[in-house]
Each structure stands twice: as C-alpha cells, then as structure tokens.
Amino acid sequence: MWGILLGVPLGWFLKLRGPWLVLFVLLSAWAIGTALKRMSTTIVEGTANAFLRLVWPSGDSTPYEKTYSSEQAMAARGDYEGALVSYGAAMRLNPTDPNPRFQAAEMLYRGPAPEKAAEFFAEGRRLSGDNRAGELYATQRLIDLYLGPLRNDVRALVELRRLSDRFPGTREAEAARELLDKLKTDAGGSS
User: Fold this and answer.
1) Helices 99-110 and 69-76 sit at what angle, rounded to 10 degrees?
2) Structural domain containing residue 23
C-alpha cells in the first residue's frame, strides 16, 4: 500500500509514464514493503528478546564461579584431609585461580592448621594480580590469622603496613594505621 502511495507521485516526478510507471510503482511497492517488513520484524524481535532476557535470564552475562560446596561439606563433617585433597585437585586444575586457595585457607583457618592457612592466603593474594578485592581480602585475613590463632604480632605489623600502603585513602587503611599505632603503643608499654 505504502509502495503505491509513494511510488506513483515519485514516478510522476521522475517523468515516468505508461508501462514504465507501472513497473516503477510495482518495484517501489515491493522495495518499500520489504523494508517495512524487515524493520517491523526487527523491532518486534528486538523487543521480544529484550523482554525475554529480563524475565528469563540466560546467565551468559555472569560467568560461572565454582562454589566448592562438596569440599565445604567434607570440612563440616570433619574430613579436613579429604577436603584439602579436593582443594588441591582444584588448584592443580586451574593453577592461576586464587579462589580454591582462599577456600582452603578459610577451612584451615577455622580448622586444624591455621599456619597452612597463612600460606594459602599469601599464595592466593599473589595470584590475585590486578584483582584489588582479592588482594585486600587476603591481606585482611592474614592480619586476622597473625593477630588471632598464630599470635605473631611481628607478621601482623608487616601485613598492617602493607594494607596501609597498598590501599591508601580507604577505611581499611585507616583502621590498619590505627591498629598499627595501638600495637606499637602496647609493645612499647610492655617493654
């Protein structure tokens, strides 16, 4: 319909008459009809796909992250050795992923070997690379270990300084500086 309504005046404007005008109108009708059909189909399909992504997400935009629930279940049952073997397999499978190290460290922190947890946190921090959140997490957990079960104030001071230096201007760095001052004051007063 639009092709005829637009094709006739355009054909007249181009001074087409007789069979040439009829042919021009038919070709215009076909071209305009095809363009309108494609345009309307694209709009409808695009809208439908956007709505579908909203109500039924595919998960393509969020990468899968392993949760290590079987290892956590083993640890909850007290099978720390089995969980550690499983974490070790995950570490060997993906040697650049800090997450299995962090998971194993958390298990060991609360479980039988906090000194081994410190090794895993340090290794996970090293593997975090540009991931500042991973580095901050590992540093904070190392501080917790050294001030808690490992009772190593010297190492805690090193980690507190690291946190203060690596994350300036954050509330974590401010808290680290306050704790550094407190530990130094306590160490000076007990001498």
Assistant:
1) 10
2) 2-55
